[in-house]
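so my prof wants the structure for this chain in the tokens format not the other one, which i didnt know existed until like an hour ago. anyway here's the sequence
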Amino acid sequence: MEPGMVVVLSLAHIVVALVATVLNLTATDRRIGTSLTRDGRRLRLAIRTELNELQTLCSENMKRLEEGKFAMSLRASIGVYRANLGRLNMLEESEIPVIVGAYARADKLEHLLAATMTASGSMVYKVSKDGSPIQEIIEQHYKVRFIARQAMALLDMTCKKDDEAALRKRGRLGIKWRSSKPEAPAEATPAKTV
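here's what i got, hopefully its the right format
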């Protein structure tokens, strides 16, 4: 074989290896990006669900306190958030302060309940004999509920934006998705009688 041909073949091998490496890195980057987007969406949905439960619990507590009954602890409604503190970086920068603020306000309310009411079991607080500042506790429940609703609205907006971006991307790629709506049944034609 001629020396020139050896050089050309060697260069061809190098070019093929470089192209394969670039393709591999591009595919890996897309997979990681898709995975991060999917995980961020799942985290958003989990936190949104938990915030919905938190604001529902606040509404129920406000009703019970106005009736002079008891208040349920908020600790059970912050488990998803606490378990995923390390994953908050998957959320949009604008979402993080609102979500952290909502849970911080819920934590403050939990401390207020513990400080001013009598614990009755691990998850229930009753009005103390010395008297609890019921009106202040109700106001704090209102604030937590309001901030939780704001955070839920922001998460909903981000999810909607992500959905629209995904639909645009699918359209650019030429992917056609079947509708989830069932097709209407064809009209029955009467049978001919002979």
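also thought this was worth mentioning. DSSP finds four helices and three strands in the chain.
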